[in-house]
C-alpha cells in the first residue's frame, strides 16, 4: 500500500513538512507546485528549508503558507558535549534569522504538552530549562544588563488536566502580557523511525497541538493570538500503523525477488493490505503510538539543546559560555 493511501485510510497525520514534501515528490515523481526546497549540509546537521509559496502549495502540502525549517541532527544521540553545542548554535542561528526581532522585543515562550507523559513532556521541560527575564528585567546582574530581552514563559498543560483549551489560556496571557512574539514548543509525531528525536522543525506558521496523535486542538497562530507565532517541534513518537506498513512493504519486496513466491506477491492488493493492518492493529486502529525506550533521556537532551538555542537567539548579548551558566 502506498504511504499516502495508508495515511488516508488510517487518518494518520504527518507533522514534519519535510516528510510531507518527500512523500508528495515520491508519489508524483516531480517537484511539488507552489513549494520550494533548499538543503544546506553542515558539519553536524542537515538544514532543509521548505517554503510554501502560494495557495496551490497550501493545497498540495495541507498546511499553512510559510517557512518550515527542519534541522536533522542524528548525532544528537551521541553523548558528546561539543557536538550538542554545535547543534545548539545551528538551531540558534536558524531561529535568529526566522524571528528577526528588534532589540527591545518581548517574547512569550509556551511549552505545550503533558508533563506527566514523558513523550509529550518536551515543551514543559524546555520551559523548565529556559532563561526567563521579564520579572527580573530591572534587577539582572550587572554583567548582563543591556544584553537581555524580556522573556516570559508558561507551560499551560493539556485540556485533560486543566479543563481549558490550551489556546484559550495562551490567548488570555497574550492579552495581558502583550508580547511581540510567541514561541510554542511541542512534541511531534514522525513519519519515519530515524527522525524520532533527531529532526527539529521550526516554522513561522504556528502550531495545532495534538495533531500528530489525532487529537487536534484549537490552533495557536497569529490569527488566534493576534501576534506572530514561531513553532518549534521535535518528533518523539510514531504511529504503529506506519511501522506495520513498512514491515509489509519489506515482506513484499522479498516476495518480488523470489520467482517461487512472485505469484503470491501478485495476489496482494491495497484492500488486502488494509485488512491485514486492521487485524494487526486491532483494537487501536490509528490510536497506537510508539516511542523509544530511552525517550526520557532523549527528551532531557533535546530540551536542553532547544532551551540553549532559545537563550542564545533571544539574548544575543550572552555568549555561549554565559548562556550555559544562566540556564535553569
Automatic annotation (TrEMBL):
Residues 1-15 form a propeptide. Keywords: Hydrolase, Protease, Zymogen. Autoproteolytically processed. The inactive tetrameric zymogen termed p46 autoprocesses to a smaller form termed p41, which is active only during spore germination. One of its GO terms (biological process) is spore germination. The keyword Lipid biosynthesis does not apply. NCBIfam families: GPR. Homotetramer. Belongs to the peptidase A25 family. This is Germination protease. It comes from Desulfitobacterium dichloroeliminans (strain LMG P-21439 / DCA1).
